[in-house]
Structures are given as C-alpha cells and as structure tokens.
Amino acid sequence: MIRPTYPLLTERLALRPFADDDLDALYEIQRREDVARYLYWGPRSRDEVREALAIRQGMTSLDAEGDGLVLAAVLRDSGTLVGDFTLRWLSREHRQGEIGFILHPDHQGRGYGTEAAPVLLRIGFEGLGLHRIIGRCDGRNAASARLMARLGMRREAHLRENEFVKGEWCDELVYAMLASEWRASAGGERERA
Fold it and tell me: What is the CATH number of domain 8-192?
C-alpha cells in the first residue's frame, strides 16, 4: 500500500493530487486536438474534463492491484499545471506496473517529463516493490517514445496495427524497465541521493 505525502517535489515541479480548482487548467490541456491525437479519447468538452477530473481526484494512493496514482505536475514557482503523471499497479502476483504522462504542448521540450517520471518509477520500484514497469504509446508519438528512452526504459515491442483507434489501425510501442535496471541507472542513483 502506497499513500505518498504530498507534494512530491523535484527541482522545478510539485507533484500533487488533482484539486477542484484544476478544472480550467486541465480543460486547457484536454480540449486540444494535438494533446488527444495519440490518446484513446478525442478532445474533451468542459463537462467531460470535469468527469475526468473527478476520477483523477480519487486516484491518490495504491492500495490494491488495479489502482492508479494520477498526479498533477505544477511548476513550483507559479503553480501552473503543466500535465499529469500516472502510475498503475497492474499485477500483484507478477509485480508489474505502468507509467503514463500527458504534458501541455506549451510546456513540452523543457525536461519536465524527465524530471517528474523518475518520481513515479521510484514509487513503483522502491515503494511498491514492483519488478517491472512498462510504458506504452502510439507508434507515431515520437516525443513519448523519446521520453521513455531518456528514462532508461528499453523498447521491447513495436506492435504493428494492433489497435483500431479513432477509425484507424494504429501501431503501439512498448517500453519497459526492470527493478534491477532502475537500481543500476543514473535515475535510481539520483533518486536515492
């Protein structure tokens, strides 16, 4: 069982549970076509974002297999919401998890993903005792693939036309990291320091 003490701080970011007053900022992210392009859902209406926010607000701890931790990433100096980061507990028996992330396009390319994602990897590997954490993305989503590679995750699969999403067959890339790789990585060393 993992119930972090919030906020989780990095050099420039605070990772914390979503709050009611995040609605406008989350809407500004999820309403965008360029954000939803490689996701299972399309641009969301304000009401759809309100529903998504309510779900996110309930995802603040990992108590059992199947739970997810979804955290708002905000700039420490301004409180601006730049995106969200997710850790899902996929299997207790096999000690498997999955990370995910969504960043506002105006804040991409600044290293926020590389800064925030190791916090979730640490929670998964060191807090929850996971053996393996995966990340998945649409095969055309080069930015997400680059981020997972920068985190030290290795590409394990390129699944050709494995899902029919938004009216088209899409490829999927699967990246993964083992606990032993985390411990040996610069990310694991940096997180322990």
Answer: 3.40.630.30
